[in-house]
Amino acid sequence: MSQADYTRQTAALDAAIDAEFAAFQARGGDLQAAAAAMHPASAIPSAAPSVRRMFEPLAGELAAPHPLAQFVEIDTKPRAPKWIIPSFIGEGLAAIAGSHGVGKTTALLPLAMVAAGLHGQGDPLAPTRWRHVVYVTEDIDQAQRILAGIVKYGGLGLSIEAVRERLHLVEARRLEPATVVEVAPTYRAKFTRRVDGVEVLPLVVFDTKSAVFDQPDENSNSDASAIVSLLKQRFESLPAWVVGHLAKTNVGRIDANSLSMRGGGAFECDANQVLFLVKEGDGRFLVRGKTRFESPWPELQVTGHCADTVAVNQFGESERITLRWSTSAPPAQNRKEAQKEAQEAERQAEAAALRTEIRDAIQSAWQIGHPLNREAAKAKVKHKTQGVTDAIQNLLSERWLHEVHIPAKERTNPKRASFLVNLTTEEHEAVMRGEELPPAKLAIPQSWRKPSAPSVPANDTQASQGTAIVQSDKADSVHSQSVHSLRETPCGTDGRGLETPRHPTISEESGTNGNGREWTGTDGTDGTDGAPTRTMADEPDDAAPGAVAGAPEPGYAQSDDFEAF
Q1: How far is it between the farthest Cα atoms of the chain?
Q2: CA-CA to 311 of 20 to 30 Å: which in 16, 101, 395, 436?
Q3: Per-residue pLDDT tens for 197-240?
Q4: All structural domains of the chain
Q5: pTM, two decimal places
Q6: Residues 6+ apart with CB under 8 A from 8
């Protein structure tokens, strides 16, 4: 038997006793003996047997049993939980904690209104029977602004009369816990409804715990346990929400199992239910902690709303203010799906940041005349190499980057065969339409181009007698080689127009290679063993591949006696 049931039965018995006393007195009975008969029969042996028999049943009822001797009949038919918010918050004591500034009042006051039947059509959290709500708040003005936003701008079709009938605001006062619970009989008598023969008790919200309950030591478990005990045993069985602060900040839904209300841990341990209001990204969630029933939802998604309006201050002056409130609803997706979606969004954000970093690096290098190829870009961007490689390939495929290839003969290094250029949005759109890139984007900068060989002007004599191109046997430089007759000049010249001394054995013709080294022949011989020689002018155009231009072919000797410049 609960305390409330015991109190009601006692009152009924008092009324029955009064009636029996009146009847007994009308029959001329002894009032003193009747008073003695109110005690157990064993304690009043002098009472008349008839009187004892009359009052023994009443005396047995008035002797309250020990609290732990009140046995409950076992029933195999399960009973559904008694709901405040169907399938999410049950009757009893619920501890609700949230971080500073997370918006506890803007979320919980509208949710309490749902319990009072003040909600929109088709709300999945709507109760089957509404109940009165007593909301004890430390900031009455904030609560009034929240209600004004919901009623005027919430689009729920609520009337201010209905709100005033069902929702009752009380300004918080910090009191001894034993004093706080003394208000319970008033709330019960004033706001209890009977619907279909069932009592619908009012919900009482304490927002916040520290604004209502005076605790000498907030971190004392014994003090917290005493408050919980008073609310569960001496609060007329009224359902209550106690709102507090989280011990940790910057937490999300996945941290719900490790969260706790600031102060003594008795609230989480002894409360019937624990919930946490957390912020995750741009959203807020009311997450279930400890519960004693199953729920189809692990959390409710809290959506914020606001509206600007004009208000009057204490001086009667008008000013613009913002009204803020929230609505709670089952999440559109479960936690696992939401976590997967959040991870995917994070991955996409990281990929987008990497793409931007790559494009910026390529654009900056190209602007200063030292563009990057793929390898240089991977070294420049400090990320995982495979990730950068994939991002560059994707940018090339999507035509945000273009790779300029350098002809082999113009490359300064075999590894520098191409470089990357970044396209602007306009250039990207033009390329996607099939248009060509601007020539400036395709130009090969000097830092990536092999310098061209300087041209050597020929003198008049060389121009009249012809020139040939030779390759030095010591270097890859290209020179102009003159062929001339000794009869016309006293000495030979090298490819640069400088004179070369005649060799003593030369009798007829002489020539020089690209380094100025002399090779000669006399009357068609090399001057040593009579082997025939050929001048460079006689070199055929179709020389064997790989043959050095201007040098004797096999079978023709080159003089071992020469001077190098």
Answers
A1: 179
A2: 101
A3: 999 999 999 999 999 999 888 788 888 889 999 999 999 999 99
A4: 3-69 (no CATH), 84-332 (3.40.50.300), 344-448 (1.10.10), 466-565 (no CATH)
A5: 0.57
A6: none
